[in-house]
Fold this protein.
Amino acid sequence: MEDIISLDTFQPFDGMTKMFPHHNFPYFSCDYNLYLTLARYFEKDELPILNNVISIYRFNEQKIQARGYFKLEVLELQEGDQILEEMGISVRKKSPALDTLQDEIISSISRGHPISIFIDLFYQRGRDFYYNKKHGLHPVFVHGFNLTNDEIYTVDDIKEYRQYSLPFSEFKLSCLSSEHVKMPNYFWEYALVSPTDHDSLNNKRLAQNNINKFIENMCRYQNEITESLNNILLLAENYELIITNETIIETLSSTIYRKCSEKYRLNTLYKYNLDHINAKDTLDPLLDQIINDWKAVRFYSNKAIMSQKFTGEIKDKCIGLFTKIYTNEVHFNHHFYLMLKAARL
């Protein structure tokens, strides 16, 4: 047997990194980075994955002193496994005993099958929030094994979404904790399934089907998305109470990377002749401004928290930014739906 068994063409999804250098933004969540990495490895179109998400602003006044009072909520239209299956990628889930884990990994990779293994972040070095502090399950891609030095090769987002190598003994420790009761089948193996009639459709027709499905889904949620914009104004009204909540920076950061995910999707969709009315010239600057204004709110909020000076000036500045974000979101949605409806005709 060779000393190193690996999937040589296996590369992490880097679309978000290319669009937003120096940031560790996932496409909506680490699960979607995983799906997009699989699509790349198996040479599948990423559109069904990109289009599976609807994002909606939520505000809950009852949670102002807790967590989850505001978010850009991610609605998944289909289960991840279902999307992969429709793309021709199968998922086999199992729970190998710890003493057979190395053999299972080598067997899968030798057959060209990438694996995601759910680990307990409590044992993962580099995760400052979790390491030796907090438990939580998280999927890690495994794409190689070095038998000489007993190292495992992974794709993960510890500091950024990229390839890592670490001692197998360390990795193994994180694979069987009390957390795994929540997910006993912690070992997921991915493989191409036999071609179907679906695959016989040419790429152009498949892409058009995916675009039509995206338009249909977005139009189905149009009213809910439009009405949800009012939650930005509710955030502004309650900002004085929220600024002292320790989760505000985390909340704003989540909102920022999800808006950046929307930008990545929009820029990908343009390549498929979605924009028949040159809406891009209006949409792109609006979305960039919305993202920049969310970043400005985070900057001023962080400044207030670090200095413990919650001045009227900072509050007014942030409330003004919320109002501006709301106005730009209304304009963006108006032009976005004009574009979609023109593409549907």
About this structure: Residues 51 and 328 are 23 Å apart (CA to CA). The mean pLDDT is 92. The longest strand covers residues 137-146.
